[in-house]
Specification:
It is globular, with a radius of gyration of 18 Å. Strands 6-7-8-3-9-10 form a 6-stranded mixed beta sheet, sandwiched between helices. With 245 residues, it is an alpha/beta fold. α3 crosses α4 and α4 crosses α5.
């Protein structure tokens, strides 16, 4: 039995005739792999995730758990996957934290007690117990990010697809997010400019440049290739250079 959980085959997407965001992307991701998708602005990182979650539709084929990503399978496939948007304002839309986290399980028509249990467990998982009655939009940005993660955990997904999960966070909250993600046992795909986080969270990296895969391999080997990184509009942070990958 194959360990492949995600497969892109010749996937192309353009936002307009003059703007092709991804070109002939083919890759496979195995169950429980931790993958980082890196690249400069406009490389196609977010588009890769939005296609995977069925928010965008391009040319080519995408499979998840052996099922083609087509309209007829969307509901079943979205139960397997959680997408974290870069901006938590795009994720949270209910009056209370409880309602936001309960939204997904409620749509699964789970019993009330199971929904309450999942909300409580998810809040513990992100280190915010007792936040059920709080208004999401009265929370700090970092707390909103963590609540956004809790909405995904409540669905018990096999796959987490995270768009810039550490962006705009203070050092303490960033560290908390990293620890939460390191404890996640399923398949993890993150897009990020945070190369230090990439080293912590992934053992495989996919480097995109102008919508194409330039390199797919071990995270350490890709990030330590300064010439390659520079060609792809990325700069290795001094902290990583000093550690001498």
């Amino acid at each position: 039995m194959s360990d492949t959980i995600i497969k892109y085959e010749n996937v192309t997407f353009g936002y307009s005739e003059n703007h092709t965001a991804l070109k002939n992307i083919s890759l496979t991701i195995n169950k429980n792999e931790k993958i980082a998708v890196i690249g400069g602005n406009g490389a196609g990182k977010s588009t890769l995730l939005l296609l995977l979650c069925g928010i965008l539709k391009g040319k080519g084929e995408i499979e998840i758990s052996g099922l083609p990503l087509i309209k007829e399978n969307l509901i079943a496939l979205r139960k397997k996957m959680g997408l974290l948007f870069q901006d938590p304002d795009d994720q949270l839309f209910c009056p209370t934290v409880f309602e936001d986290i309960a939204f997904g399980p409620l749509n699964l028509e789970l019993p009330d007690e199971e929904i309450k249990r999942r909300v409580k467990e998810s809040l513990l998982q992100v280190g915010l117990p007792g936040f059920e009655d709080r208004s999401p939009h009265h929370l700090s940005y970092g707390e909103m990010k963590r609540i956004s993660l809790a909405t995904l955990f409540a669905m018990k997904p096999e796959i987490l697809a995270l768009d810039e999960p550490t962006s705009n966070l203070d050092p303490k909250t960033r560290r908390k997010i990293l620890e939460i993600l390191k404890n996640y046992s399923g398949t993890l795909i993150i897009t990020t400019h945070d190369l230090e986080a990439v080293l912590e969270l992934s053992n495989r990296a996919i480097l995109l440049y102008k919508g194409e895969i330039v390199k797919d391999g071990k995270t350490v080997e890709i990030i330590s290739d300064e010439n390659l990184m520079n060609k792809c509009d990325l700069e290795i942070p001094l902290s990583i250079k000093l550690n001498k990958l």
